Structures are given as C-alpha cells and as structure tokens.
Amino acid sequence: MAAEHVQLLDYRLNEHIVQVPAGKGGHARLQTTVFLPDGPGPFPLIIINHGKDAGAPRQQARDRFIYMATAFVKRGYAVMVPMRRGFAGSSGTYVEYGCNMTANGLGQASDVRDTLAFARSQSWIDSGRMVVAGQSYGGLATLAMGAQTTTGVRGLINFAGGLRDNTERCDWRSELVRAMATYGGASTLPSLWLYGENDSLFNPELVTRMHDAYVRAGGEATLVEYAAFRRDAHGLIGSRDGEKIWWRETEQFLRRIGMPTTELYAVAPAPGLPKTDFALLDDVDAVPFLHEAGRSAYRDYLGKQSPRAFALSANGAWCWAEDGEDPDLRALATCEAKGGQRCRLYSVDNNVVWRDDDDRMQRAMTLAVAGTTGAATAGGKADSATVGGGAGAAH
C-alpha cells in the first residue's frame, strides 16, 4: 500500500470513503468514494468508473469526478466512484490481458459488478434505479459489465470509452472494435456514448467503427459526437465546464430509461480564497521568490485555461495546474514534492491571492477552500493529478 496521507473530503456533498469487498471470496477491498444528498434515502444510484493514467496503477490518485458527482447529487442521486483492484488505495492486483481488449474490459467489469452487489445491500440505495457510467478505460469496463447480468441497472453511459495499447504488433483499434461487437451482442441495456472531435485517444473514425460494431451485434447505443472541447475532449467529465456539454444528452437519456433528472437539492458553491491587492495579475516582476525560469513559467501560466492555480515557495519552487479537479491543491502538492518545502498559492483563476501573512494562515485557508475535513488514512496518494489537468514545475 502507498504511504499514509490525508484524505480530502467535501462536506457539501457528504463525501466519505467505504471499502467495498471484491474479487474471489470478497477478500480484496475497493477504495470507493461516496457522495450523498442529505437524508436517509433510499437514493437512486450512479456508479462512475475511472480510467487508467500513465504509470503504475497503484500510484494513481483516488478519482472523485467532483463536477459530475455534484450534478447528480443535486438531482437526488447517491454517487459511488470505486477504484478497481490495484488502483490507488484499493487492495488486490491490477491484471491486464495485453492486446486482448475484450478480456481487459471484462476483467475490469468484475469489480464494477462487485460494487453493484455491495450497493444493492445498502439501505440508502434504491436498488431498482441504478445507472452505470465510465470514462476511458472505465467506459470500456462499463460496456463490458453491461454484457453480463445487471439486476437493477437501467442504462449505461460511456464517456470516451476504450483502451489504447501502443506495444509492438498490437492492433488495438481493431481489438477495440472486436470487443464492442462482443459486448453489444450480449447486452440488453440501452447505452449513451459521448465522444469529442478532438479526443486524443479515440478519433471520430475509430469511434464510428466501435459504435457500428456494437449496434450491428445487437446492442442499443445512442452515439453523440460533440465538437472539439478545450485541448482534449478526453477529459470532458473531469472539467468544470464539461457539464454544459454532456448534461443535455445525458438528461434526455436518463428520462428515457426512467431515471430522475429534476434538481432537488442545492449544493453551496465551493469557497474560494479572497482576492488580494498584493499585485496585478499580469505583473510578473511582482511575484516573489522566483528565478527567471519561474517567471517564464508564470508568463506561460497567464495563458492557461481556467480553472487554474499557481503555487510557489520561498526557495523558488513553483508549479501551475489547469483544468480538471482541484487545480489549487494539485499545484500545491506538486510544488511541495518538487521543492521539498511548504508552498503557497499565488494566483487562482484570474485573481492574485497571495498574502504577506504567516504561512500557516494561508495553508489553513487553502484547506478551508477545499471544503474538507482531514483524516489520516492508508491508501493511494493525495489528489494531485486529474484527468484533463496540466501542470508544470521546477526547482
């Protein structure tokens, strides 16, 4: 297991973490983030399945899909985000099947089915009103899960689903098409597929091939191909602005399968660090501590997309993060990892938030901005990287 760290939990969404039994005999435990409306339930459920970042699965951060989770909690849903075996703080071992995309999807779907079984046993879940969604590798797992018994699940939502394998002699595109034909031939559930024109992994031609194979085999799938989104549509649901694109089609799909879409709960906006009068945003020379490389990085940061944040420390370390979830926390975490000492936020979005106060004061304010409570927990690393985000750092 990874080193002990502080888990960040959003009180506005009743966020907490449960351990879901999985695998043979239920001996593995899936680190599963839960978001809930206020009240005892039972609530309709959406399960959101994560993708696979580059690098070792064990080092992947706990996925939260905070923007999508918020949209569903507002509409009265319970939200579960399970980290599959071998990822982040989950126990067990990640297993892959090389270029066999059909087997890869089915292998990951096993943990999704175990999460569904756990959900059905909970009094706060309406086990007759469930939907399963997934992004990237999680989308592939979602469609694979739909090819098997899915009691209580009314539909599947595939956000940029698939898996790429660039190893030699792996025709991963054709393997993905073959997998979709297999899943479609066995599925009895309606599905919604959403892919963007500038998806860096799955281009429109491949998406059409996958969808056609799924439907020709007997699967029910509505394909929505939307225009280019920011620098890479693959990170749509991890972006603050993504809901403007995916919700309209998702709402229509949910209504069609008898799932609720009306907003029932208000979720307070996340608190933000107050703007200060330390300096103008574009006054590069006013930024403290930075050497020339850091000032050049800050100039680059000014051209990045919101949400964004820039962090620095007294030894000249710096980091920026853009888009995705919690760019402020990601910038701080990477800055501190690179620089080896405490960092502070200088800018968030279009505001300078730097204060000449004691360092401990701004650190406390930053945790308050995250809307969190902290508890020391064994598990995966802190949420310092997110699908769709970007960062740069040096020291």
Structure overview:
This protein has helices at 66-74, 101-120, 137-145, 172-186, 204-216, 243-256, 292-301, 327-339, 359-369; strands at residues 5-10, 16-22, 28-35, 43-49, 78-82, 125-135, 153-159, 190-196, 220-226, 308-312, 318-322, 344-348, 351-352, 372-377, 390-394. The strands form three sheets. An eight-stranded mixed β-sheet has the order 2-3-5-4-6-7-8-9, with helices on both faces. A five-stranded antiparallel β-sheet has the order 13-12-10-11-15, sandwiched between helices. 29% of the residues lie in helices and 24% in strands. The two termini are 29 Å apart. Helix 2 crosses helix 4 and helix 3 (137-145) packs parallel to helix 4. With 395 residues, it is an alpha/beta fold. The radius of gyration is 21 Å and the shape is globular. It is built from nine helices and 15 strands. Residues 368-395 have low confidence and may be disordered.
Spatial separation of the terminal alpha carbons: 29 Å
Count the beta strands: 15
Placed side by side, the strands forming the largest sheet appear as 2-3-5-4-6-7-8-9
Count of runs of 4 or more consecutive helical residues: 9
Query: What about the largest sheet?
Result: 8 strands, mixed
Structural class: alpha/beta
| Rg on CA atoms, Å | 21 Å
- Stretches where pLDDT is under 50 for at least 5 consecutive residues are 368-395
| Average pLDDT figure | 89
Task: Give the strand content.
Answer: 15-25%
Written as H for each helix and E for each strand, in order along the chain, the element string is: EEEEHEHEHEHEHEHHEEHEEHEE
Q: State the shape.
A: globular
State the helical fraction: 25-40%
